[in-house]
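Exercise 7.
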Amino acid sequence: QSRLLPHRLWVADVEMLVADLPVSVPEHLAATTRALEQVLTSLREREPTSPAAIAPTGAQLDDCGWVANRWCELLPVPLELKQRLMQLDNPLVRLELVGDVLERTGIAPL
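Solution. The predicted structure, written as tokens, is:
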């Protein structure tokens, strides 16, 4: 629930989601990781001060939830879709759906 205060400040009650359990990226989704790594490398080269220009660790690149969430931050899709994806409590399903978006949009043919 959110509300607008008289001085135009939006406030809301929030519920923290439980952190994803680590789930290794399966072979059939490895292309999503490789594509993300390429995008992040390119971003670091072009915009090194951007908050999104991170250098991921090998462990992060092998984690379904981490890879899916980074794609959700970067994908040019409506915020509602990003939120729905990031609310999924199964990181493998989230990454599979992100992979579908990447294929359908042609951003990263898998």
